[in-house]
Every structure is written in C-alpha cells, then in structure tokens.
Amino acid sequence: GTRQGPQADEHTPLMLRLSLLLLVGPLDALRVAVTGAGGQTGQHAFRKLLALPEFEPVGIVRSEESKAALVKSGVPADAVTVADVTDEAAIAAALAGCDALIIGTSAKPAPSGETDESTGRPIFGFPNGQPEAVDWLGQKSQIDGAKAAGAIHVVLCSSMGGTDPGNMLNALGRESLPDGSTKGGDILLWKRKAEKYLIDSGVPFTIVHPGGLLNEPGGKRQLVLGVDDERTVGERSIPREDVAEVLVQALRIPAYRGRSFDLRSMNEGEGAVTTDFAALLDELGGRDCDYSLGKMA
Q1: How far is residue 53's CA from residue 138's CA, in Å, rounded to a whole number?
Q2: CB burial class (10 A; 0-12, 13-18, 19+) of residue 60?
Q3: What SS3 class is residue 121?
Q4: When you count CB atoms within 10 A of the terminal residue's CB, does the N or C end of the chain come out lower?
Q5: In terms of C-beta density within 10 A (0-12 exposed, 13-18 middle, 19 or more buried), how is residue 287 classed?
C-alpha cells in the first residue's frame, strides 16, 4: 500500500501489531477486502474504510462497469478488483493477501415482469443469481478464500428474519414444481446456512443482521442491538450508512469478534445518537443469536 508508516516485520505477533497500531498509527495498514463494494451498504463500508488511514481497503465488485462507476466517482482504480463471488477461484485470488473481509454481497430480487394470477401481485426473480448461488455458495467461497489468506476477521452483513422460515422474503424467486417441491428463493435460509458455516470455520467473525434498509443519512439515530428477531424499542429498520458504520467498527473493536446480533434503529430525534460503539455492544449483555432457532437451507 502507499499509506505506510514505520515498517513492522511481517512476523511481529498480531496482538503486538494491533497494539502498536493504536499507539503510533499504521505500521502496515490492515488490508480489508469489501465484497459488494459496488452495491449500496457495501459501498458505504468501502468508502468509510478508504477515509481511515489504519485500513487499506480493496473493493471487490462483480463487473468492469461497477469498477468504472467507482473510479469515476473518485475511488483509486488500484483499490478496486473485479471478481464474481460465484467464481470460487476468482474470489480466492482477489482475497489473497487480505487481513480481513467484510462480506457485503447479497442476491437481489427484481420484478420478473410476470404477475401471479392468483394474487395479482408481481412475481420476483433473481436476475443476477439465486440465493443458493450468491448467499450460500458465494459466501462460502468468500469465507474459504479469507481463511486461505490467513484473515484474522470476517464481518458478515446478513439480514434479520432468519428465525422465521415463513418470512415473506423467502418466497421471493421460489417456484413450485409439479411434484410439490420447490426450487429457488429461500434467501434467509441460505444466508443462515452461510452464517453457521462462518461460525464453524474457525475464523474470527462478526455477524450483523440489519433490519429493513433505509436510504437515509447515517449518524443521526440511536442504534439498537438485539438477537433472534426480537423487537424491543425502536423501529425494525436502519439506514444503510449506519449498518456500514457498525461493519467498520466491528473491525476496530476487538469485543465484536465472535458475536452475532440484530441491528435496528430508533427514529431520528428519538433517544441519543449512537457514537460509542463499544458501549453499544455492551447493551447485548453477552447475548448472541441462537442458531437452533428457525431453520437453514
């Protein structure tokens, strides 16, 4: 990278390196891959990392068009790599040399143009890849690639709703076959399978389940953490930019490792704007999401 302070020998023990980092600034900035960096939440996280000298982010995007759009907006071309997460070899190559990973990819539903005759509602499909390919196999490839690279932390942006197999998001893109079985869809079941794979991988992890994503400015709300889709105070939604901030803070605050939680917010003007992200995590009182609930694909 270009933004380097005093050099640390690559064999310097990790905790010492991290401690030195806090004292003297970047020795060799933490190289963090961000997938989904051309998307919405992933791009917010990527841009936040670019602005912080202790990180050397690599944005991973699916297409040359996505890369060109980022570069046109002022992102350095050498900070963006093109690799499709459904291509296991490509993603492994893109993650080589990375110290940490933020997984910001997700299958994206879009109207297919067809209508469900029984309900009159539009039928949704997944034109850029079904959840099984993107949210399960694509995330598995990312986790495997990060592990092979010797990454010290994987932060996964998932979704609330995983404890309820009947969640309406699971019906998107799902087809009923003549024999009564189904194919496609089930996005939250595939996401949950990938989360459990990450937990079992042995790589230090943080799993964040945001509620409904809002395109509103971040840094203006009190954030609320919870587990298992509980709804206590606040809304079931959160600005994407606030989600991105938590993904970044998870890399900075060691207590976020080994944790899985839901992330929501109060309405703007309610409560006090969250600025202390260590204290935010303390609100969980040591609780984490329970993967015996709901089901996985």
Answers
A1: 29
A2: buried
A3: coil
A4: N
A5: middle
Q: What is the pLDDT of residue 129?
A: 92
Helix (H, G, I), strand (E, B) or coil at 190: helix
In this prediction the pTM is: 0.89
Burial class (CB in 10 A: 0-12, 13-18, 19+), 82: middle
Average pLDDT of adjacent 10-residue blocks, the chain of 297 residues:
52 66 65 97 98 96 97 96 95 96 96 88 90 97 96 97 95 90 94 98 98 97 97 94 98 97 97 97 96 93
Q: Which amino acid is at 86?
A: T
Run of H or E including 131: helix 131-131
CA atoms within 13 A on the CB side of 216: 13
**Closest residue by Cα to residue 46 from 3, 85, 75:** 75
Pairing relation of β-strands 182-183 and 175-176? antiparallel
Rounded to 10 degrees, the C-alpha dihedral 64/68/70/71 comes to: 130
Please check whether residue 259 is in contact with residue 284, taking contact to mean a CB–CB distance below 8 angstroms. yes
Nearest to 280 by CA among 218, 205, 225: 225
141 given a catalytic annotation: no
Q: Which of 66, 159, 260, 265 is catalytic?
A: 159
| Distance spanning both ends of the chain, measured CA to CA | 40
pLDDT for position 176: 86
Neighbours of 193 (CB within 10 A): 21
Q: What is the DSSP letter of 29?
A: -
